[in-house]
Design goal:
This protein is of the alpha+beta class. The protein folds into two domains: about 5-55; about 85-180, 2-Layer Sandwich (Alpha-Beta Plaits), CATH 3.30.70. It is about 55% helix and about 25% strand. It has helices spanning about 5-55, 60-75, 85-100, 135-145; strands at about 105-110, 115-120, 120-130, 150-160, 170-180. Strands 1, 2, 3, 4 and 5 form a five-stranded antiparallel β-sheet that branches. The termini are far apart.
Amino acid sequence: MLSRRERTIVLIGGVGLVLVLGWIFVVEPIVERMRDTADLVPSRSQVLARRLDLLARRDAIVNELKATNTEIERAAGRFLTEAAPAVAASELQKLVKDMAAQASTEVRSERILPPVERSEVLEIPVEIAVSGEIRQFVDLLARLDGAQKLLTVQDLRVRVVNVSQPKELLATLTISGYILPGKSKT
């Protein structure tokens, strides 16, 4: 067997081995986990502060949401009738012809252009050629701007019908109305 001195050396070596293995597999992982947790504390307290701020502003956020929803509903009322694009184009055509008649301009031609997708809405363009004096065109543009429906003038070309008498003008307008395609019955 081993002498007393050898047993002491083996015992000291065993205790040293247990201490080293304990340090590597127990103490270091615990210290590393504590460092990681300490690194997370500032970011987690920022997240907590933001969430507490959101909870404190809950009533204001709910009121803003209601106001925004009301504004969206009001704006949605300015869209053309929710129907097929052809029906909406017909409605837009009739609307523009009525405004042209109220502005005392003569409608020379009209043409429905293909619809264009604009993210959440479908743009329905109509091209219309009208003739009249400059005051009548200004009146027509003012009526288009103040229309109950949301209308935009995409293109406007104006030319003189008779160069020797520049009283009468011919204007070609591309006017667009909008529908919500998700709610349309296409």
